[in-house]
């Protein structure tokens, strides 16, 4: 047994230190980023925020709405090939260029990914997603997907340490998804005692990825726009959001009326609810590692995404970053023991 003494930080442990800036207004801040990906050589430009591949967040409807803002959606893996065929018929190129096709790592998943990708050349992102990215099986699967799709952008995860980020990039991933345990409906830390504070995971994994020309997605744990900025400030190239984009018209969750109020169901992809729906219940050998919650229904996602983007722009003006790309260079985090003032309740 070994104990690491280095301090590891979550979003709640820091704030940005403001810096002198020549920017007069947040309208001067450019949130669009241009990437050329390491293995595929593909170029992509957009706002590097991604709706999570959860079945009450990353829907086709979400992809269509967020693409208008240049924002991406990792479409969840529970749509059939026929659903995708219907979807690609009615969508313009920008929606498809901003959609990730999510997949697990089974033989059936591989065949399904091939069938979906064959529908159109406009789909360019594949998101290989398993809860525990430390499995040797993931590395082999990434190699296999890279061989099959040399010119597609491949994201793989989830991991939280630099060694595994390097291994996945060397196996063929353009992007590595980072986060174990921080999610809003995740109970992994409670059920297993495993995890890593998300800001430190991002800082360490970004360093490892960038050294090899790879990219990372900071996935999970953002509860407000300030957290999204902190993730970018820590070095995340992309930030993935579940809970912050759940509960909306486009999230496609089950609507529930209770005491005259409208709610939407939101649950973790390893929760009892998800396993009941997609796998016929929780298998005997495993425990559910996700929660089910009811969120007040929030209407269309437009206002929310604009609010998030406005918050990130504002962070950039406070630290003098004219482009999102500069945020990490301009970021000095201060360690704090308080965040917001909750005297009149929580925002
Ligand atoms: P959020 O933005 O809601 O804090 O986090 C979203 C992320 O939580 C997802 O992208 C995914 O990585 C993670 N997640 C989703 N469902 C589950 C679950 O059931 N268990 C765990 N451990 N993580 C989950």
TrEMBL record:
Reaction equation(s) it catalyzes: IMP + NH4(+) + NADP(+) = GMP + NADPH + 2 H(+)
GO cellular component labels: cytosol; GMP reductase complex
Pfam families: IMPDH
Residue span, IMP dehydrogenase/GMP reductase domain: 9-338
Protein residues bound to NADP(+): 108-131, 216-239
PROSITE patterns: IMP_DH_GMP_RED
EC top class, as a word: oxidoreductase
Binding site for K(+): 181, 183
SUPFAM superfamilies the record matches: Inosine monophosphate dehydrogenase (IMPDH)
Catalytic site positions: 186 (thioimidate intermediate)
A molecular function (GO) term: metal ion binding
UniProt keyword annotations, A-Z: Metal-binding, NADP, Oxidoreductase, Potassium
GO biological process: purine nucleotide metabolic process
E.C. number(s) listed in UniProt: 1.7.1.7
The family this protein is said to belong to: Belongs to the IMPDH/GMPR family. GuaC type 1 subfamily.
HAMAP family reported in the protein's UniProt record: GMP_reduct_type1
NCBIfam families, per database record: GMP_reduct_1, PRK05096.1
Free-text function comment from the UniProt entry: Catalyzes the irreversible NADPH-dependent deamination of GMP to IMP. It functions in the conversion of nucleobase, nucleoside and nucleotide derivatives of G to A nucleotides, and in maintaining the intracellular balance of A and G nucleotides.
Subunit structure: Homotetramer.
This protein's name: GMP reductase
Species name: Photobacterium chitinilyticum
């Amino acid at each position: 047994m070994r104990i690491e003494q280095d301090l590891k930080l979550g979003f709640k442990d820091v704030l940005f230190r403001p810096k002198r800036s020549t920017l007069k207004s947040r309208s001067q801040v450019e949130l669009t980023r241009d990437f050329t990906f390491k293995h595929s050589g593909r170029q992509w430009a957009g706002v590097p925020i991604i709706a999570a591949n959860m079945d009450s967040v990353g829907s086709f409807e979400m992809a269509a709405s967020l693409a208008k803002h240049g924002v991406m959606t990792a479409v969840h893996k529970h749509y059939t090939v026929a659903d995708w065929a219907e979807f690609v018929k009615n969508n313009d190129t920008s929606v498809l260029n901003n959609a990730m096709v999510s997949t697990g790592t089974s033989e059936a998943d591989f065949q399904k990914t091939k069938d979906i990708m064959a529908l159109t050349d406009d789909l360019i992102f594949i998101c290989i997603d398993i809860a525990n990215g430390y499995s040797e099986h993931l590395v082999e699967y990434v190699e296999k997907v890279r061989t099959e799709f040399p010119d597609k952008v491949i994201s793989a995860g989830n991991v939280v340490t630099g060694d595994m980020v390097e291994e996945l990039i060397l196996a063929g991933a353009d992007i590595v998804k980072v986060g174990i345990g921080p999610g809003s409906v995740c109970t992994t830390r409670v059920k297993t005692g495993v995890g890593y504070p998300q800001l430190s995971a991002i800082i360490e994994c970004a360093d490892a990825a960038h050294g090899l020309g790879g990219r990372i997605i900071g996935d999970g744990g953002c509860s407000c726009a300030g957290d999204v900025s902190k993730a970018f400030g820590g070095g995340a190239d992309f930030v993935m959001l579940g809970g912050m984009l759940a509960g909306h018209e486009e999230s496609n969750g089950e609507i529930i009326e209770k005491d005259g109020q409208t709610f939407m169901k939101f649950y973790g992809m390893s929760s009892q609810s998800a396993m009941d729906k997609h796998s016929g219940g929780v298998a005997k050998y495993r425990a559910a590692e996700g929660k089910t919650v009811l969120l007040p229904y929030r209407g269309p996602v437009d206002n929310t995404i604009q609010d998030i983007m406005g918050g990130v722009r504002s962070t950039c003006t406070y630290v003098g970053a004219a482009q999102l790309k500069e945020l990490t260079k301009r970021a000095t985090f201060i360690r704090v023991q308080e965040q917001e003032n909750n005297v009149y309740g929580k925002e």
